[in-house]
C-alpha cells in the first residue's frame, strides 16, 4: 500500500488503521493526501485495485472569498492558523496527534484550497477497474461533508460516520 499524508501531517496513516487495505495494489490518502493519491492513480500505468480517500480535501463548493481568507490568515499568522486548524481536524476527538504534525507550506494550502476534482478523471479511474472508497465524518469541521458525499457518490463507495470528524475513528 502507498499512502499520502494530509496537509501539515506526516506518517499519520496509523490513525486510519481500521480501514486501510494493506495490499501492494492499494493507494490511500488523507485530506490533502487524497488529492496526491488521486493524481498518482490517474497518472499511473500500474495495477491499482483500490483508491482510498479519508476526508478528501474538497473545496469545490467554497467561493474565492473563503479560499482567499484562508490563505491570507495562514500567511499572516501561521502559528495561530495551525492551532485552529489542528483543533478543527481533531474535533470531536481528544487524541494526541503531535507526533504526526509537520510544517505545511503556503503553496500546499493554496493547492488544496483551489484543487478542482475532475469527474472525467474519476470516471477514467473507475473504468480501469479501480474501486474508489471515500470515508467521511459527519462532524467534519474542515470540509462540507454533504457536498463531498454528493460529488463522490457516482464514482465511489462512500462510508459516512455520524460521530466522526475529519479524522475518521471507529471508537467514537
How many β-strand stretches? Answer: 5
**Separation of the first and last Cα atoms:** 26 Å
Sheet bearing the most strands, described?
A: 5 strands, parallel
Query: What is the CATH architecture term?
Result: 3-Layer(aba) Sandwich
Tally of separate domains: 1
CATH fourth-tier homologous superfamily: Alpha/Beta hydrolase fold, catalytic domain
Q: Measured on Cα atoms, how large is the radius of gyration?
A: 15 Å
Structural class: alpha/beta
CATH topology: Rossmann fold
Write the layout of secondary structure elements.
Blueprint: E1 2-4, E2 26-30, H1 32-43, E3 50-54, H2 64-76, H3 78-90, H4 106-114, H5 119-127, E4 131-137, H6 145-152, E5 157-161
Parallel strand pairs: 1-2, 2-3, 3-4, 4-5
Helix pairs in contact: 2-3, 2-4
Could you walk me through the main structural features you see in this protein, from its secondary elements to its overall organization?
Strands 1-2-3-4-5 form a five-stranded parallel beta sheet, with helices on one face. Helices cover 37% and strands 15% of the residues. It has one domain (2-161): Alpha/Beta hydrolase fold, catalytic domain (Rossmann fold), CATH 3.40.50.1820. The chain is built from six helices and five strands, in the order ββαβααααβαβ.
Short overview:
With 172 residues, the chain is an alpha/beta fold. It has helices spanning 32-43, 64-76, 78-90, 106-114, 119-127, 145-152, and strands spanning 2-4, 26-30, 50-54, 131-137, 157-161. A five-stranded parallel sheet has the order 1-2-3-4-5, with helices on one face.
